[in-house]
Recover the amino acids of this structure.
């Protein structure tokens, strides 16, 4: 049973002060003593595998070599032994279906032999492949129900780990999730393909500058924002329970306008939760390092040291999972929704992205000895974003993010790139030079060398830009807080790969005509820089002027998810995913369908929840208070005290007006909802939900939020913002 507002508030009052908090085991020790203790990492592999098996796994990770079943058998044995020593009884294939969450299917090591004996085993074939009942995961029609098989396949590039839930310990094997025909049904396989594609495209470009480079990998450092609320209050809000956000609720008189929360001190209970979360993260090898308050009350951020992109993605998925679990231990709930509260900031997930080489070079760092290589990767990244902005926009489109991107808040739906004053000047100066010989190349290298230390210079950061250069990496800021980073990161890798292929061809053309390579590189870069102007924007991305200016520049603006996703059925997207082999036509169509379907499902659930909460909680309270007011007015009149009923009458009138608006809103919303469900296709359904259902939900909310001010506080059934947002 859900709690009532008053029970919930009482529950909090009854809790002992200070709230007793049990920290995770190990939290008082030195982090190094338990970091990655639950990961089957290099060290554990060396200990539990033969040299041959160890080297085979390494080769599989580094150059994609196939593993034999004998090796898989040995790895399985090693993993089993390692995990049993740590108390595991079960194993699970862990994967990232297109729902955006993670999934796992647990199996026991225990099995029966043909003659009925009990044994514990974990074979190579069980490690390599499993067949969870995939029929309930979204597949966008790739699997019809009679052929519902989906397979999880071991991904050796991501280390196995032990998930501890209460007393239970499970060996988790990171896997990809595919159909019988090998088509991707998850976020992970396209990501891995995009890494391979980027590597192949970037190495030859790196070799123009340094022959030693044989591998290029993308790196990701995410910054995860989230809200924390008390568990009892959470349970008393059916909208939070059902949809992850408040569908109703009036802004508290005090919210973020004082800006006293940002970098302020962290409440003790939340602090204990954070430390616990960090300990659990560190045990799993997630290198979280930074924690601080965010702008809104009860909003926080956690960020790790950056890692290779697929590992960073796994770690973020794991962290989101851990957050929810650890929070419950502290009688708290974590909200990962992009916009849990109206009127204050929502949450995002900044994705810091760069590329690194096997020689240890960050390709987006101008470094000390700056050179043409940095300029090459820097300019090509911007050119890629310019060309494929719509696909990048689609990768961050989902119902939750519409509340941020469409509204006047953190990164708008228009993709542009911020590079800062120093880099802007540099590009201008490069364009000024007009000789095309070696002298010109020297001058440019000289210019880059004179750049101020960008890594230290954070002064000109533009917090409103969706895509910003921050000294040694690009920061993609429009990613939603609940999203799997793999979506947008796959797009980044792919667009960069395609762009580098084009760049190499352009340079080779000039070299074939007799240009020196350095001169050819600079000439091509200059021709790119000349075309970059429309995508570069240093001003305020939240302003209305920018919307107009962006339209003049021909940049797209898709504030809603269904519109933003349309690009996925275009020639541009087919070429993008097809040429890079990151997704074939079937996979792309399925991906589009799954995203649209998820959008429709979310909005339908929200509308139905709103309908129920308004009818069964809000209106009964409103009617009770109306009756009270009406009775009071009647009594006063009976006593000939007509001059004492002004306030009551005004309030009653306002309440009646609001109630009528609610009635009308509900009726229209439900009609539209029926229409949406009758629509012929999912795109049509999404359209109705977006343009007919959602506006009615907003109208209903406005009326209810007005009533929240009028109705006796003792009657109001929903926990108010002022109670939710200031965790005690
Ligand atoms: P901020 O002021 O935004 O917190 P930081 O320099 O502390 O800036 O970095 C923020 C994030 O960027 C961290 O998660 C960090 O790991 C990540 N980061 C730093 N260098 C790189 C890189 N080369 N590639 C990817 N991410 C990086
Ligand atoms: Mg940042």
């Amino acid at each position: 049973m859900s709690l009532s507002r008053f029970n919930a508030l009482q529950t909090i009052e009854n809790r002992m002060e200070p709230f007793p908090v049990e920290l995770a085991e190990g939290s008082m020790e030195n982090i190094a003593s338990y970091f990655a203790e639950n990961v089957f990492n290099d060290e554990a592999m060396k200990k539990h595998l033969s040299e041959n098996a160890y080297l085979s796994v390494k080769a599989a990770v580094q150059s994609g070599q196939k593993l034999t079943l004998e090796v898989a058998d040995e790895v399985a044995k090693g993993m089993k032994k390692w995990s049993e020593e740590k108390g595991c009884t079960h194993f699970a294939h862990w994967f990232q279906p297109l729902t955006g969450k993670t999934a796992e299917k647990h199996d026991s090591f225990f099995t029966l032999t043909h003659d009925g004996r009990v044994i514990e085993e974990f074979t190579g074939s069980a490690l390599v492949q499993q067949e969870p009942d995939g029929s309930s995961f979204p597949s966008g029609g790739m699997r019809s129900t009679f052929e519902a098989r989906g397979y999880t396949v071991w991904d050796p590039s991501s280390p196995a780990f032990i998930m501890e839930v209460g007393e239970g310990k499970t060996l988790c094997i990171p896997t990809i999730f595919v159909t019988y025909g090998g088509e991707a049904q998850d976020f992970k396989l396209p990501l891995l393909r995009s890494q391979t594609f980027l590597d192949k495209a970037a190495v030859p470009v790196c070799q123009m500058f340094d022959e030693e480079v044989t591998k290029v990998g993308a790196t990701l450092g995410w910054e995860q924002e989230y809200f924390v609320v008390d568990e009892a209050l959470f349970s008393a809000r059916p909208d939070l329970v059902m949809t992850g956000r408040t569908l109703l609720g009036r802004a508290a008189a005090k919210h973020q306008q004082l800006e006293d929360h940002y970098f302020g001190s962290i409440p003790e209970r939340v602090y204990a939760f954070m430390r616990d979360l960090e300990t659990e993260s560190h045990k799993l090898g997630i290198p979280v390092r930074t924690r601080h308050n965010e702008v809104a009350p009860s909003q926080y951020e956690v960020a790790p040291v950056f890692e290779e992109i697929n590992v960073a993605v796994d770690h973020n998925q794991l962290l989101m999972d851990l957050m929810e679990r650890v929070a419950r231990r502290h009688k708290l709930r974590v909200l990962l929704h992009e916009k849990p509260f109206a009127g204050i900031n929502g949450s995002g997930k900044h994705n810091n992205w760069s590329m690194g080489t096997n020689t240890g070079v960050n390709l987006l760092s101008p470094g000390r000895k700056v050179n043409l290589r940095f300029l090459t990767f820097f300019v090509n990244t911007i050119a890629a974003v310019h060309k494929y902005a719509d696909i990048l926009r689609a990768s961050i489109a989902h119902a939750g993010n519409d509340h941020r991107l469409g509204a006047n808040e953190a990164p708008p739906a228009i993709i542009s790139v911020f590079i800062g004053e120093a880099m802007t000047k540099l590009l201008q100066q490069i364009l000024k030079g007009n000789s095309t010989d070696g002298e010109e190349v020297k001058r440019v290298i000289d210019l880059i060398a004179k750049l101020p230390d960008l890594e230290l210079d954070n002064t000109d950061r533009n917090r409103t830009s969706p895509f910003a250069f921050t000294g040694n990496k690009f920061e993609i800021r429009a990613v939603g807080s609940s999203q799997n980073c793999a979506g947008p990161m796959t797009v980044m890798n792919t667009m960069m790969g395609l762009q580098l292929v084009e760049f190499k061809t352009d340079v080779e053309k000039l070299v074939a005509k007799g240009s020196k390579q350095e001169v050819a590189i600079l000439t091509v870069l200059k021709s790119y820089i000349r075309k970059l102007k429309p995508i570069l924007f240093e001003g305020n991305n939240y302003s209305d002027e920018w919307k107009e200016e962006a339209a003049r520049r021909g940049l797209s603006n898709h504030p809603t998810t269904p519109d933003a996703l349309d690009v996925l059925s275009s020639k541009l997207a087919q070429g993008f995913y097809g040429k890079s082999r990151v997704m074939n036509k079937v996979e792309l169509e399925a991906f589009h369908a799954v995203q649209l379907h998820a959008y429709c499902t979310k909005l339908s659930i929200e509308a139905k929840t709103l309908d129920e909460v308004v009818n069964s909680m809000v209106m009964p309270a409103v009617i009770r208070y109306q009756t009270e007011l009406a009775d009071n007015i009647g009594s006063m009149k009976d006593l000939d005290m007509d001059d004492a009923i002004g306030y009551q009458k005004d309030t009653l009138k306002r309440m009646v007006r609001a109630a009528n608006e609610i009635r009308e809103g509900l009726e229209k919303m439900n009609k539209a909802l029926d229409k949406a469900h009758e629509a012929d296709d999912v795109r049509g359904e999404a359209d109705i939900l977006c343009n007919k259902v959602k506006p009615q939900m907003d109208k209903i909310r406005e009326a209810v939020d007005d009533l929240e001010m009028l109705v006796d506080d003792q009657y109001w059934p929903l926990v108010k913002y002022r109670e939710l947002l200031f965790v005690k």
Notes: The pocket of magnesium ion (ligand 2) is lined by residues 223, 350, 475 (CB under 6 Å). The chain has three domains: 35-186, 195-583, 598-724. The radius of gyration is 28 Å.
